[in-house]
Design a protein that fits this description.
By secondary structure, the protein is an alpha/beta fold. The chain has seven helices and 13 strands. The chain binds ribulose-5-phosphate.
Length: about 250
Amino acid sequence: MDYSRLKQIAAEKAVEEVKDGMFVGLGTGSTAKFAIIKIAKKIKDGHLKNIYGIPTSKKTEELAAGLGIPLLSLNQLFKLRTKNVERRTLNIERTKLIDITIDGADEVDSDLNLIKGGGGALLREKVIAQNTGRLLIVVDKTKLSSRLGEKFFVPVEVLQFALESEINFLESLGAKTDIRKSDDGGFFVTDEGNYIIDANFGKIENPAELNSLLNERAGIVEHGIFLNKLVDSVYCSSNDGIEILS
Ligand code: 5RP
C-alpha cells in the first residue's frame, strides 16, 4: 500500500473517537489532513453533530473552514468553556478544554515520545496539545524508531532576533543545524513570525533532558520534542493493519 493510503487509514481510524458535541483539535500535515477531511464528511452526512474544530495552524484553519467545519480559536474556546469555572483550578499542564486532538508526527520512539514540526506548526501544535484531554497521534509505521533522532531532526522555533545566537547554542549542544527555507528560497517564517532551525542531534539518548535544556533557553520559542506525557495513543498503520499504541 502506498504511504498516502496508510496515512489515511490511521487518520480515519482515529476519527472514530470523535463524538457528537466534542471540541476537536485539528492537526497539521498530510496525515492530519485525512482526519480533517473525514470529520468534515461526517458532519456533512449528519453523522457528527455540534462539533467545533480548533486548528493548529493557519493552513489547517483554511482547509477546515473550506470544508465547512465550524471553528473556534483557542482564545474563543477558553472564554466559552471557562465562563463558570475558577480558572486557577484548571490543571496547567493539560487543561482538557479540547476533548480530543488528532495530529501527525515526524518520529515516534518506543516510549511514545515524539518529534513534530516537519510542517512548521510545532508551536501551535504544542499549545493545543497541552490544552487537550486526549492527544491521538496518527502515523504510518515508517515513523517509528527506537530512539528519537534516528529518523528526523528536531525543529527548533526561534525568535528572528536571536537566530545566530540560537544556532550557536544548538551547535554547542552537539547539533548540526540548518535554517529552514521556504519554497521561494527565503527563510521559512512560522505562523507566529519566527524562524525554524532544524537541529540534527543524532540519536537522542535522553529526550526529557534535551527537552528541559531547550525549554530553559531564551530565544527558543518552542521545539519539536513532545514528551510522552502529552501523548495518549499513537495510531500506527502498516500493510499488516492498524495498531493502537498507548
Ligand atoms: C507539522 C507536524 C506534522 O504533524 C508532521 O510534520 C507530520 O506530517 P505528515 O503527516 O505530513 O508526515 O508536526 O508541524
